[in-house]
Write a structure and sequence with these properties.
Length: 167
């Protein structure tokens, strides 16, 4: 069997580049099952297509020159399933994302950075999660840890409410 690269398909793809771009766009809007039904492709094909499209468009320079970053988690499904996201405060862009919300998850980000790119980080903003702080202290000990103002204000409001209730 002989395989030849064609301009209308990505390497290793069974679908055209245009179809894969549509699948990736739809994946931003809805779950995999409705996409598979709408486009009459396999459910598992949707995941592989999204991986290919993201890999093609992912900018490797996004991790270079990070100075001030923010780390936070977002719940993406019932049952306590979370994604940890890292944002570059200078550009406002999400530069890294992975399932989980513990020290090991954030440590994977710092491992991907490597020691050279890690050295440029001077400040990291987090919520008041102790697990993120541990990963930051282990990986970038000279970086300043800043708490998210939302969580600081919420903690202050709770303290004021508790004093009010006690009185």
């Amino acid at each position: 069997m002989h395989l030849e690269a064609v301009p209308w398909a990505r390497p290793g793809a069974h679908h055209t580049r245009d179809l894969e771009d549509v699948v990736a766009w739809l994946a931003q809007q809805m779950a995999k099952t409705p996409i598979a039904g709408l486009l009459r492709i396999g459910w598992d094909s949707v995941g592989r297509i999204v991986q290919r499209v993201v890999a093609e468009h992912l900018d490797e320079s996004r991790l270079a020159g990070l100075v001030a970053i923010g780390c936070d988690e977002i719940s993406y499904r019932r049952g306590q399933r979370y994604l940890t996201s890292v944002v570059d405060h200078n550009t406002g862009a999400i530069v890294w994302c992975s399932p989980g919300r513990n020290a090991q998850t954030l440590q994977a980000f710092f491992d991907e950075l490597g020691p050279n790119r890690r050295a440029s980080i001077k400040a990291v903003s987090i919520d008041m999660s102790g697990s993120y702080a541990k990963a930051i202290r282990d990986s970038v000990p000279d970086a300043e840890i800043c708490f998210d103002p939302f969580h600081v204000v919420r903690l202050g409001q709770r303290a004021v409410d508790q004093v009010r209730r006690d009185e």
